[in-house]
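Researcher: Good morning. I'm working through a list of sequences from a screen, and I'd like to move beyond sequence-only analysis. For each chain I'm collecting a predicted structure so we can compare shapes side by side. This is the next one on the list. No need for commentary yet; just the structure.
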Amino acid sequence: MPLLECRGLVRRFGALVAVDGVSLALEPGEIRAVIGPNGAGKSTVFNLITSTLKPQAGEVFLAGEEITGLPVHRVAQRGIARTFQRCHVFPALSVRENVRIAAQARNPRRWVFFGGGAVRTASAVIADEALERLRLTRHAQTPADMLSHGDQRLLEVAMALAQKPRLLMLDEPTQGLSIEETDRAVQILKSMLAGGKLSVLLVEHDMEVVFKLAHNITVLHRGRVIADGAPDVVKTNVEVRRAYLGESG
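Model: Good morning. Structure tokens for this chain:
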């Protein structure tokens, strides 16, 4: 059974059909990239999966359970965590506290008045584990707004990871990074994902990043899926090269 399955998703904005019958599936432990030119519908698909937007047609299933249109917090509670194109961190708080709060948010006893110290301690342990996996431990006490842009992107991944998701969704994790920052981020992400225990859906504009991280790729163009498969297969697809890389013939 796929961990994530989208069936015939449709989303319109007035006369614009941003997502036009998109179906895709993500197996447990799979890293799947969703790519396409600007305006292809990639981020809209992300927003439909997480219920930030509601589809006008189609369904979303997580581990066989339909989650279409659930409130955003309910989708998160089912085990989906995501990052965004723009960093969503608490700038005045320390790196460790950012991640600890994210971990605490997933605890069902997060707001208890008595015994709350145990919840805080448990979330701190999870935070430290996430910081180590993203190689941010040395910045634990640094205010988030003092980090480089590259480390802020990794901090957001650590915050998502601390929620112990079944599915991690990364929306343009290398956006705005230099070549050196991108190379470092890819190495850290590869290390974090080694072992295949985490399922990942990735939107990424940098094709080198996609080919280094993804097991499979879904290609969107004008809101529709035009190709789906392993990187080597997608890379040589004529329609993909025409739509995404601008080639002719």
